[in-house]
Amino acid sequence: MPDAYKDVSNVVDIVHNAGIARKVVKLRPMGVIKG
């Protein structure tokens, strides 16, 4: 159910702007393994 999850970009921006954490790098998935 996709509506149960928040947008990661928005969460990271809020945490960064609040001073709780700081942005260092942006990770991008290269692939998915299911098994």
Describe the structure.
GO terms for molecular function: GTP binding; metal ion binding; RNA ligase (GTP) activity. This protein has one helix at 8-18. The radius of gyration is 13 Å and the shape is flat. By secondary structure, the protein is an all-alpha fold. It contains 1 helix and no strands.
Question: What is the topology?
Answer:
Blueprint: H1 8-18
Q: Give the mean pLDDT.
A: 90
**Strand-and-helix sequence, N→C?**
H
Share of helical residues:
25-40%
Shape call: flat
User: Which range does the strand content fall in?
Assistant: under 5%
- Count of distinct strands: 0
State the helix count.
1
Unreliable stretches (pLDDT < 50, length at least 5) are none
Largest sheet composition: none
What is the structural class? mainly alpha
What is the CA-CA span between the terminal residues? 21 Å
The Rg value, from CA coordinates, equals: 13 Å
In short:
It is built from one helix and no strands. The protein has 35 residues and is mainly α.
Key phrases:
nucleotide-binding; mainly alpha; 0% strand; EC 6.5.1.8; RNA repair; RtcB; ligase; 35 residues
